[in-house]
Amino acid sequence: MSTSETRSQSGPISVFGLSTAQLRPIVEAAAGESVASFAISIEHQVEGYYGFAAEKLIPTFSYVTPEGRRGRVTVFAKHSQNPESPEAEKYRFLAAHGVPLPRVYGVVRSPEDRPILFLEYLDVSEQAQSVRSTEGVLELLSLMARVNAIRPTPEQTAFLHSWRDDPATEVSTLELLWEQAQKGDLGDDLQQFCTSRQDDLPRLLAFTQRLDQQMREMEMGVLHNDFSPENTGRRVTGERVVMDPELMSMGPRFGDVSGWLGRPEDLWTREEDQGDLAEHYLRKYARWGGCPPALDECLEECHLLWVFGLTNLDFGLGLARADSDTCEEYRAGSRRGLLKQLTMLLDRYC
Fold it and tell me: In terms of residue numbers, what domain contains 222?
C-alpha cells in the first residue's frame, strides 16, 4: 500500500463496480464528516505480496462537504473471493478486546455479491524490514501476545471455530500429495522422491497422526493463523496494528509464535536468543490477561508446533499442481518447499 504515480485511466474510475450511493457512506466514514460530492482517483498501488484471497485497490476520494469545504482521504479496499468472508466480524471481535487495528469504514456487497471491506490506509512499506532489528521482533511478539492472550466468551469461541475440524486433514493431504507426485503432477523431483521412498509413507502417516493428537491435547487460545510482519501496518503515529484476521480461530495457544520460538537451534540464524524472546513474549502475554506457563513448557510447545507446521502441506500442494492457476515461479517454489518439508520430516523427525 505504498505511494506510486497516479494511474492513467480513461473514463470514470470504478471501485469494484460500486455506485456513488454505495460509496458515499464509506467516504463519509473515512472523512469523518458529511460529503456532498466526491471524485475517485488511484494514486497508490498495492505492492508486496498480493495474496490469493482478495482483489485489492487503494482509492483516493477528493470530496466536497455541504458547506463547500474540500478534503481528500485514501482508503484500502479489499474485495474478498469468499462470499461469506468473516473478516469484518473478526475485526470487530479484535476491536472489542482492544487490539490495535486499522479503522474499519464499512463493508459493501459487490455486484458479484461478495464483501468489499474498506479499511484505513496504512504504511506497509517497511513490513519485512521491521524485523531485521531486535526491537522490531520484540514489537511483533508483543502484538502477537496481545491477540493470543484474549480470553473469548463461550459465544465468541463458537464464532471463531476450531483451528481444524477434521483430524484427518494432514494424513489425507499427505496421501494425496504422494499419489499426485508419483503420477508426475508435481514435477520430476517430487516424483523421484515419493517413488523412491514409497516404503517410508506409512511411517510418515503414523508420525503425523501422533503429532496431531499432541496438538489437540495442548491448551487452546486465540490464533491469528497468518501472523507475520506482512500482515501488520503502521500508523503515522508509529503504532503498529494487526491486519488480515480472516483466518483467525481457536487453536494451540502458541501457534502464532512457533515460527519464532520453536525453530531448532541449528536452523535459527538470528543473533537473538530464543529463550530471551520467549520470556519477552510471555511477559506481554501475562500483561494482556494470558496465563503463561513456565518458559521451558512454552518452548517445548512451540517446537512441537513448529514440527507440526512441516506437516501442513495443503496450501503448498494447491500451488504446486501442474493445473494450478498460479505463475510458474510460485509453482516451482511451492514444489521446492514441499520437497524440503517431506525430507526434513522423514530424515529428522519420523
Answer: 128-349
Cα 317 to Cα 165, 255, 324: the distances in Å are 20, 21, 9
SS3 220: strand
Q: How many domains does the chain have?
A: 2
Model confidence over 148-207: pLDDT tens digits? 999 999 999 999 988 665 555 677 899 999 999 999 999 999 999 999 999 999 999 999
Residue 86's SS3 state is coil
pLDDT at 13: 84
Listed as ranges, residues in the chain with pLDDT below 70 are: 1-12, 48-51, 128, 163-169
CA 313 centroid distance within chain: 16
Measured from the Cβ of residue 162, the count of other Cβ atoms closer than 10 Å reads: 13
Q: Taking a C-beta distance cutoff of 8 angstroms, is the pair 6, 72 a contact? A: no
Same-domain check for residues 143 and 93: no
Cell of 144: 502477537
Query: 93, 120, 147 — which closes off a domain?
Result: 120
CB atoms within 10 A of CB 74: 17
